[in-house]
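Changelog-linked ticket: alpha-D-glucopyranuronic acid example.
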Amino acid sequence: MKRRISAVVATIIAMTLSLSACSDLGGLDLDKVGEDGKKTWVKLALNQTETHPSYIALDHFSQRFEERTDGRWKIDIYPNEQLGSQQEVLQFVKSGAIEMAIVSGTQLENLNKDFQVLNMPTTFSSVEHQMEVIRHPEIVGEVFTSLEDSDNISVIGGFTQGGRNVYTSFGLVKTPADLAGKKIRVQESEMHIRMIELMGGSATPMSYGEVYTAIQSGVLDGAENNEVSYSTQRHMEVAPYFSYTNHLIGLDYMIMRHDLRLAMSEEDRQIFDEEWEKAMIEHTELWDQETKDAIADAEATGATFDEVDREAFVEALAPIKDEFLTTDFQKELFDKIRAADTSETGGSK
Ligand code: GCU
């Protein structure tokens, strides 16, 4: 953890130096972005490894965007929390120290509680339903644009986190009673703390990059995430029992400095949006295969996957809706999202 903190400090110092030197790597001149003959360098923060589908889709996106704008734009991706945890990089995008980041919905909830609706157990029935909804401005437009004036953040779109499940160092979980007294890591979100409490555990909020060591040292008894993160973060080495609670289909957002988005020429913004749409498609296509590969990888390392008593968890989580859908806007948003589910199981939860 110490190493990561000093890397973050070094990066911030480097950013500050480049800002004061006004080089191409910092201190963007918004009047000139994308101008002919001038390359605009953009820093994009990611907390995943280079093998994660988010990195792969972003890397291809960045290459295509650079190519189609004849080199006017260069997006540099910094994986592995190199620029800081998601909580930190969100502040960096807000302040303009970096330009873009992938952050989990839990981070945006802390700026506008309406994002909780898209990050709650039962909101989405499937990845297909989720990816369909986030492409509908008439459903999500008001929430996605809500941070532009207040926080200088444009929400561009999203990548699925797939179904999230509990894994532990001590054994498989069948019912909420198995989590009694167990410390389970959650993302930094009031709603997710409550979610784990309802599921029977004791919630410990913590940033992603600290989870491995915390489980290894016994500070945590487990965490919750998808199979891809479980394998790419090597969590199966310290928490080999993976239980399919499937309590939530999570969502990551691509965020960008709003002033930078406004400063892009119309032509470049259109190219950006077209290529971003392809990135979302590629990410979703990769997701299934990467999930299968992650399971095989974790099993080869000795992990066990098993089903839970589904009904027991559904029942335990039932109160979350009433506790967190508190305004008319949130209730309507939730209803619109549920109504957009056309799958057979739609609306059944
Ligand atoms: C997933 C998600 C990340 C998030 C992480 C977490 O991996 O894609 O954006 O940070 O879960 O649990 O913190």
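Closing comment: Example verified and attached. The pocket of alpha-D-glucopyranuronic acid is lined by residues 47, 86, 104, 161, 187, 208, 225, 229, 252 (CB under 6 Å). Confidence is low (pLDDT under 50) at residues 16-25.
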